[in-house]
Structure formats: structure tokens, C-alpha cells
Amino acid sequence: MNVSGCALSFSTLPLSCLLAGTVCLPVVLSGVARAADVTPQDARTSFDSAQPADTAQQPTHPKQTVTSFSDSKGEHINVNARLDRMRSALQPATGATTYRFSRKDIETIPGGDNAPMNAVLLQAPGVAQDSYGQIHIRGDHNEVQFRLDGVQLPEGLSVFGQTLMTRFAHSMSLTTGALPSEYGFQQAGVIDITTKNGSADPGGEVSIYGGARDYFFPSLQYGGSHGKWDYFVTADFVHDRVGIENTTPKFNALHDLSNQYHFLGHLRYTVDDTTRISFTAGVSNAYYQLPNNPGQQRQFANPDFLNSQLAQQVYGTGDSASLNERQKEITDFAILSLQKEIGNFSLQSSVFSRYSSLGYSPDPLGDLVYNGIAQNAQRSVMSTGSQSDVTWHAAPHHTVRFGYQAYVERTVSQTDSTVYPQTGTDSDGNAIFSGATETIHDGNGRTGWMYGLYAQDEWQPVRNLTINYGLRFDGVDEYTHSKQVSPRINVVWQPWHGGTLHAGYSRYFTPPPFELVGGTSLDKFANTSAAPGTLQDTTVKAERDHYFDAGISQMLLPGWHASFDAYLKLARNMIDEGQFGSPIILSAFNYRKGKAHGYEFATDYTRGPFSVYGNFAWSRAMGEDITSAQWNFDPADLSYIRNHWIHLDHDQRWTASAGGSYTAFYQTGHPTRLSATMVYGSGLRADGAIPNGAKVPQYVTFNLSLVQSFQDLFHISFLKRTQLRLDVINLFDRRYELRDGSGIGVGAPQYGLRRTILTGLSQRF
């Protein structure tokens, strides 16, 4: 049993995981989720479809002369904007459901750029929140890929939102549904972040944000251009005492200090109006105390130890309120890209590298007393790879796209575990343990790779009908070795003005997360207090899915849009993840069969300074028969699940959100914006009479934000916009539980953040 908070935070805002339950949905100004190259143009939720091939999808033919950017900053901005459009056209999500968030939308979120990234993503229907700031999209545990300027980043040990701050994004999108063939590996959702750059985000800003619980969040950003170069850098520091969710419903958590450092740099060189080279690099260092769960009395995690003589001897010798468990997480990444247009061809080719490491330090006595093991755990993964995407405008009604992705990865794991050795059994068959301890060292490393190739044709037989069909070939050679050819097809029809219908099918292949597949030598822990209930440890397999999706999007009135979407996923070797034991490292495992289905509804209305939105989703995710990493589970649970469908631990039936905003004096230099948001969840799963057979109580939270802006407040030419903000999180101080500490792969209880008041001051220059 883990008696402290036990997973890493999704978001970079240290209120992060806690804010996941509260600062969830910003007020949406006009254009939220506005889809480019989609009809209707004002849709915030849209099904991507190509415009007629002889209009929007045709590129502007490149000039044959080189532009001198040194003479015209406006020309530099226009060329970069055009190249950005061409880059987006390399990876359209034709037939999929896309939610787009502009810079203006992001700034409207309570907290603005200081808010965690999951607060932005939770605007979209079908996205459920979990503890540690994690999100679940359409019933999947993870399977979420992040892209920076179209380049997919390899998975890392920490939930990647810790590295990618909301502040980094100029705009972003979330794409779900039956994805076209250019999207591979993680396919529950594709989060594509367009990073800030010197052309679109010139100038600088310094800000200070903070409030209760020692929350202190200074940040600095600056962007500009010179000749053919443009650049952008941002850095911040986060300090607070709510880094991970509270394990109790009290106002303050015990032992919950966090310090986080983040940096992102973006540099581009525009050779001419058809060629651009860019380099992006980021760093994230995070240090966490794991919050304590006072009043724990259970000794050892394994039931076999509960009645042992040693358990009686050590009972009460460790105080669960004063444990000192800590975790350190580091992530560094870099991307080098070349974008080029040659006649009817356009391409982007990139090389990238990402390193991440995670280190867990136990409480030497407390972990031993409560868990039967005190384990120092270190794990790291280094990923290097390449991605290329090419678009060929082959004919007036055919756009052909093809490309590849390939990663080489090296993961290393080392643990030093202190345990009690077993010396025998008593007359009742209970284990007898020595009072002396022993140390077990375990370590392993492995190198592997995964790759994917794709080709597809976007065909428009008639003006209002688009058919996108293609094939994808994926392979993985890591802990598991498997391959698959995946057909995909999407049909998008625009039968009337303002309306779009779509239907699609995609075959998916998802490799297991290399860095989360355990390489533990179980035999070393036999006959100790850390012995697993079973020594069975089948290798985690790749997941294979049939995915169906259909929906409709309609502009009802000017400014008023609505959409409905339904989906069904049938999985073999469904991948799930859980946290087993004290080290905050998720472990992957498979259900032999899995299924997820549901529907989503979204609507929004914007008129002038007023906007309002609402969405809800219904979902069901089930699995049967755990067929890998079995040693992590109780033998009785394994036996039941072998022949019974159960809810996945992250299954939540109903998820909803709503919000609105009004901006007074919005046509002046001193606008005042008032916004309010709401988030509802029917509750994630918990153990009942059967594994995951119950759920935690439903909850609803409200937030309020007030932002006052001033233009040239100090009448100094160097200083531009000044902004003051006040955010109230969990306005009515609701006590609510995200996790109760039970369920398959669930650690300690997790409670949402109590009422918190935050203030901020930012100055543009």
C-alpha cells in the first residue's frame, strides 16, 4: 500500500493536478476551436475536411525569386505565415474531430498562460480528468501524442504536460476520432502545439502570479526578428505547497512542496519564401515531495504479511503523517526541422531527441513498515528519431500525402530495495520474517526501435464530398516484436450550407510504452517481504484496434454552432497503465480484450463581447483478462478478471463542462473581462464487490476570473499592456474526491483543490 501521493503531475502549474479538477474550462471567446479549411468556418468543434481541391488545398505557387527580408519586417511575417499554413496542410485530420484553441482562447482561461495545459484540453468533450493532472480521452488511459509544430515527440517517463507549459503555445489543437494514416503510435488524441515565435509573438512580457500555499510563479518571455531570423524564448519558475493532490479532504496537504523550472527556445531561419529551417529546445526540472496520508495502520502491502509476527513487532513504528518520500523528474528535448516547397510538392523533415529521467527516494523506515519494501528507483529513457511528411498535389482532385516516423530508444532502470527476508512459515502457514533487513539491487537496460510508414490520397470526386483513404505500416522491436498494416478511410460530406457529416474507420496499432514496461527480476524478491503474489510476468504486447467514428457539425445561426459525434473502439491486447507500489512510476499491462464507446455533444455561441459554451460526453470503457505484467496484481483479482468484463479504472460515464465570459469596454484600451467556468464528473472507478465495481462520488466545481487590462498605463513608450488578474478556484469550496485509493493500479486517495485565490500582474514591453 502506498500511503502518500503517488504519481507525477500532468500539468506544469503546481496547482496542476489539483486544478485539473477546478481550473478546467476557460471562457471561450469567438473562434475557439475554429477550424481552418473547414465548413463552417466559425465552428469551435469541427470535422476536418478539405475544401475543393482547386481552392483551399492548392498551395500558393512559390515565387522564383528570393525575398530580401532585411528590408521588410512585414514581408518576413507574411512569408512565415504562409509557410505555417503550408506546414499545417502537410498533416490535415480529414474526417477526424478537431478542437482548436487560439492564442486569444488560451488567454481567456482562468490563470491564462499560468494555467496547466490540461485546463485547456478539458474544454473539449470526451476529455475526463484524473489525479496527478492526467487526462483520459474517449476512455483511453493514455495513448495521447504531443506534437510541436507538427513533429511528434516520443513518450517520456513523466506525463509530458510537465515539460510543455501552456505558456509555450501560440495556439493548439486536439484531434480525436478515426485518424488518417499520418497519425500513428498513440492515437486516442493528437495534441498539436504551435509554439510561439518571433514573428507571431514579438516583444516581451514579465509576469508574477501567485497566492495561497506559498504559490509563487514568476515568468519571462521575449520574441523578435532580425533579417531572415526570428526567435522566441520563455522561462519560468514554480514554487508551491500543492504540487500533487492532497490525500485528505483538508484545506492543506502534509508534505507537498514542489519546485519546477521550465525553459523553451525557438529559433528560425527563413532562407527564402519556399525554405525555412527551425530549431526548438526545451528543459524541465521538477522536484516533488509526495503528500502524506495520516492515520494509516496497515502494515505491509501484501496480505500475506498482515498476520506475521514481524508485522506485529513493527506495528506503529512508522508515522504515516511524517513520511519523507520525494521524486525528481528531468526532461530535455530538441527538434531540428527543414521545411521546403518544390513545385507541387511540399515537405517537412525533422530530427529530434528527448531525454527524460525519474528518481524516487523513499522514506527508509516508513516505506519498509507500510509496504514491506523501501526502494530507491531510478529510470531514464533516451529517444532519438526522425519524421518526414510530404504533400503532392498530384491532380486537381487528388492530394497525395506520404511519410515516415522512426525512433531509436534506450531505457535504463535501476533499483536498490531494502526488504525483510522470509525465514519460514508458522503452523498456520503464515510467513515468518527476520527482523534484520537485506538490500536487493536490480538493474537492466534495453535498446529498441519503432517505425511507421504511411501513404494516403485525399480525393474529391465532387465539390462537397471528400474521401480520404490510405494505409499505414507500423512495427516495434523493443520488449515486444510485432508489425501491422493498417487501412484507414474517412468520408466527409457537406450537403448544405453550414453543415458537415462524416464517417470513418481506422485500424490502429499501438506499441507498449517502452519506458513503462518493467524489467524487474522477480526471482530476486522471492521469499522476502516484497515477494509478489504471483511470479507470472508475460511481456506487454502491442495493442490492435478497430475504430469507428461518425458525426455531424452544424452552424445553427451566425455565431451559434453545435456538433454531435459517436465512436466505437474494439481492442485486442488493450494497453492500460497503473501505479503499483511506492515509486511513482506507471507500469503498463494488457487486457486480452477491450472496448470503448460513447458519444459527445458540444455547442457554443459568441456575439461581440459575450460568449458561452457547453458540452457533455457519455463514455464506457471495459476490459477482460489481464494477460501481461501479472505479478503487479492480486491473484484473486486476476482470477476474476480472467473470465469477466470489468470497468477500466479511468472509466467515467458522464463528463461535462460549461462557461461564459463578458468583456466590458472591449473596444477601448482598458477592457475588463469577467468569466466563469464549471466542470462536472460522474466519478472514476473504485473497488466494490468486484475490481473497479464501484465509483467515487460525482462532483461539480465552479471557477471565477476577473482580468483588467491597461494599454500604456505608465505613458512610457517602452512599456505596453499592463494586466491585473484575479482567479478564484473552486469558488464554493467543494470537497470532492478524484480517487479513493482503490481500483486496479490506483495508489493513494486524491482530493481536489479547496478554494484558492490567485492574483497576477503582467507587463508587456
Structure description:
The chain has 765 residues and is mostly beta strands. Helix content is 7%, strand content 51%. The protein contains 7 helices and 37 strands. It has a 22-stranded antiparallel β-barrel. A 6-stranded mixed β-sheet has the order 1-2-7-8-5-6. A two-stranded antiparallel sheet has the order 3-4. A hairpin with a 2-residue loop joins strand 5 (144-148) and strand 6. The radius of gyration is 26 Å and the shape is globular. Residues 1-43 and 49-71 have low confidence and may be disordered. Keywords: Cell outer membrane, Membrane, Receptor, Signal, TonB box, Transmembrane, Transmembrane beta strand, Transport. Its main location: membrane. Residues 43-71 have a biased composition (Polar residues). It is found in: Cell outer membrane.
